[in-house]
Design brief:
InterPro entries: Tmem135. Keywords: Membrane, Transmembrane, Transmembrane helix. The chain is an all-alpha fold. It folds into three domains: 48 residues; 100 residues, no CATH class; 67 residues, no CATH class. Helices cover 80% and strands 0% of the residues. The relative contact order is 0.05.
Length: 245
């Protein structure tokens, strides 16, 4: 009888311990489920959070991630299109222009610059919008920070991008002045002045032109060595003598 009572007590203790173990596992699973649900809702809130001044769709972080992906695709397509065009002008060097280690590193550097240039503007702008309510000040600071990423790129490309941005900034300033200060056919006159300036550089101040742009201009202008010698030895000398007078 004592043995039977002891076995019954042992079995009851096992059942009680088994039930306690099941309850503990169920409670742990419930806690894990609640933690997962809360973390997912918190992550959605963070991704979808945006300020009243933000005009983009979705949250700020979502906008930065989408901008990084778009910048990668744009930079990749742009750089390899340029390399492909440069290789088509010289078919012998096509594979070297697309798949050489130097070309891949240069393309990666350009793509990295485009990505950081884009996302740095978005990150700084959305961060400042949470602190400062002045949209003009926020845009100026974000543009300054993103423009500083030009230091990542090569010198020749920095010069070319700086020239493009400078001409674009002049056009923006002209449009910002308002209709009262605008001149009749002002955009056309402005474009003509730019063309004359660039043509003068190509003709007489060749050393100031970025090397990458100069190669493309030489290839498409179909100038021969005699043409370049005439520019260098005759026309440039005559122009310099006029300026000295």
């Amino acid at each position: 009888m004592e043995k039977e009572n002891a076995s019954q007590q042992a079995s009851s203790l096992k059942e009680i311990s088994e039930k306690a173990r099941r309850k503990s596992t169920e409670s742990i699973e419930d806690i894990e489920d609640t933690i997962k649900k809360e973390s997912q809702t918190l992550l959605k809130r963070i991704l979808n959070s945006r300020t009243k001044q933000c005009k983009h769709k979705g949250g700020c972080i979502d906008n930065v991630v989408k901008g990084a992906v778009k910048s990668f695709m744009l930079g990749f397509a742009t750089k390899y299109s340029i390399n492909l065009l440069a290789g088509l002008m010289r078919p012998k060097t096509l594979l070297n222009a697309l798949f050489s280690a130097k070309s891949i590193l240069d393309s990666g550097r350009f793509i990295l610059f485009v990505i950081i240039f884009n996302i740095s503007y978005k990150i700084v702008l959305c961060t400042l919008r949470r602190i400062i309510k002045n949209e003009k000040f926020n845009s100026i600071v974000a543009g300054t920070v993103s423009a500083s990423t030009l230091a990542m790129d090569t010198f020749n490309r920095r010069m070319m991008i700086s020239l493009l941005f400078f001409s674009r900034s002049l056009e923006t300033f002209y449009n910002w002045c308002g209709p009262s200060y605008k001149i009749y056919l002002g955009e056309t006159i402005f474009f003509m002045v730019q063309c004359v300036f660039m043509k003068y550089l190509y003709a007489y101040e060749w050393e100031l032109v970025p090397k990458s742009v100069a190669k493309i201009y030489k290839a498409y202008s179909l100038q021969k060595k005699n043409d370049l010698l005439i520019k260098e030895k005759i026309w440039r000398v005559m122009l310099d003598s006029k300026f000295k007078r």
